[in-house]
Amino acid sequence: MKAKATLKQIAKELNVSVSTVSKALNDSPEISDLTKIKIKEYAKLKNYKPNVIGLNLKNRKTKTIGVIIPNILNSFFAKVFSGIEKIADEKGYNVIMCISNESAEKEAHTLEMLSNGTIDGFIVSVSEEAQKNQDYEHFSAIINDGTPIVMFDRIAEDVDCDKVIVDDFDSALNSTQHLIDLGCKNIALLSSIDNLSVGKLRAEGYLKALENNSISVNNDIILRTDSEDDLKDKIERVLENKIDGIFALDENDSVAALRIALRKGFKVPEDISIIGFADGILASRRLSPSLTTVSQHGIEIGEVAAKLLIDRLESKEEHVPYETVVIKTKLKERESTRKL
Amino acid sequence: MKAKATLKQIAKELNVSVSTVSKALNDSPEISDLTKIKIKEYAKLKNYKPNVIGLNLKNRKTKTIGVIIPNILNSFFAKVFSGIEKIADEKGYNVIMCISNESAEKEAHTLEMLSNGTIDGFIVSVSEEAQKNQDYEHFSAIINDGTPIVMFDRIAEDVDCDKVIVDDFDSALNSTQHLIDLGCKNIALLSSIDNLSVGKLRAEGYLKALENNSISVNNDIILRTDSEDDLKDKIERVLENKIDGIFALDENDSVAALRIALRKGFKVPEDISIIGFADGILASRRLSPSLTTVSQHGIEIGEVAAKLLIDRLESKEEHVPYETVVIKTKLKERESTRKL
DNA sequence: AAAATTAGTACAAATGTTTGTGTAATTCCC
DNA sequence: GGGAATTACACAAACATTTGTACTAATTTT
């Protein structure tokens, strides 16, 4: 365990003062060339690197971003993270990642832990529990303490901060309309995320599309739940009704629906067309038939969120107004929807 | 932007010294109960939290781990990370995550950046480029500087440090043997990761199994490449040979093989049995037929790696010998292998 | 040659903590 | 009541850094 070189050590060994070493290494004109060269050579020899903690303390910032997401195994969040990491790296920031596991308490605890000097700002997607309980106090507290937060995807309307969202309502509306245009008359809605803000918005988009086309709502073919318990059974029950289209609000639901439909002997897309929200990297594209999906551009969401945060951190202005950026989704047509 | 409370501010406003405030908040017996109460109440009012950077400087450690993985969109790495995060959180550590994108340069740069006070130790899976070039100097340099590293999955044999690996050779041997036991005579090997240490070991396990069963090696049905260019064509060419079993060395290969086999009219598992390495959360389990996989226990790998690192960081001993932990894989039989 | 300038350093303060040592004032005991 | 012990706090150093100011020579200027 070699001790790392510090200014002090170098100063002592070269019989100069700490400030001289610091200034020499920073090429200050105050220091003579001779001394500079001597110090720089010695520093190189000792493999000196300025200790970041000392710098952090002096500068009162750490060039580190805290990211809190509910679950890294969800590939949507993994994609967002990779977008965040890309921008952060480009701009010289590090990223501390914490997983809330959908727990409001861990979320709050993490915010507390990191907001006392460790990080300069947060990027967060709100945990399920916090959304369920509409419990957003912990966010406001942190923001009031002067640490900026950017929320993405699962946001808290009431909290005043930068936000990056997908146009959930519109894309659900458009996707449903697409199914209707394909000739579907009985379109089932499958949602196991009805507790999330995004789930609610998507469901509303679906309903709006029905309304626009004067299609009456059939509650037997609408599944809105907030748990995955018995999901298969529930979907199975929906599929017992007369159905020629399925709109699923997340990847889980859509993949499950496809499997169950196939097992029940439906032909996809001949009998039933399926569209699902998804941003998995493996699943939907590779199933047979491959699933038509609403692509959420996870990486772009991450990039935009990181840019928003870093811009705010580096802005000279005190009171930059908060922004909400809406990322447009895109319908990726694959084999699970029949052609016009 | 409210300024955060510091000991100094509190001291000034209560007309006591900084040390008195610090000691009061830490319940030192030196301070009278009256003063303690007064100070604690005021601190609470001001929502005082000790600044972590100051503490870090004092303690010369940050309780932060740096994780460097090649790609977070690979769900194996996402699983490992979630294991790391779990243990880190339990033990009060934060995790800085960096993505090397398979670049040796970014890997080296990240190690440099973080090893000067930001983190206490690293957990790393080596980038493809570094493995290809056998370029491990950057790791040794960091370790020599006194920052411990734990490597997992893709390791560098020559670097002296803690390691967590999967028993790649044995599990490839066993999987291949399993196919042989099922009656397969012509087992293809598909690898698009022949540049990685793990890819080579798995291929060797396959060959050993053939040898053990006196099956001669047929190079026409062995695909060993280090790129995914034209992967489909290459696999297609392999499948033009007489084949009744496929052993694929990663998820990509196995999923591609299944699709191509099905398209070529093979019945799975009747005509061909398929086993693939995989740790995707969505794909293999959900395909039809579902794929029999070698499960790599990503989460456990992450947990073990984090424990190794934290134990070392917190050990009083100077020279704890380095350890290499082997995690056993498990064959998850699904529909793509026929039954005995 | 004395004064002014300049170069090349050292010193000190600041960032926020913790902690060992020092120092008044009070209490104790005989 | 006076020396010892105790109480309750202040002071200072340390962690690693940057940076403004002060100081000491040497050089230049007049």
Automatic annotation (TrEMBL), chains A, B:
Q: Where is the HTH lacI-type domain?
A: 5-59
Q: Which Gene3D superfamilies match?
A: 3.40.50.2300, lambda repressor-like DNA-binding domains
Does the keyword Transcription belong to this entry? yes
Please name the GO terms that the record assigns under molecular function. Answer: DNA-binding transcription factor activity; transcription cis-regulatory region binding
Judging by the UniProt lineage, the source's domain of life is Bacteria
A Pfam family in this protein? LacI
Keywords attached to this entry:
DNA-binding, Transcription, Transcription regulation
Q: Does the keyword Transcription regulation apply?
A: yes
Its protein name is LacI family transcriptional regulator
Q: What is the lineage of its organism?
A: Bacteria, Pseudomonadati, Bacteroidota, Flavobacteriia, Flavobacteriales
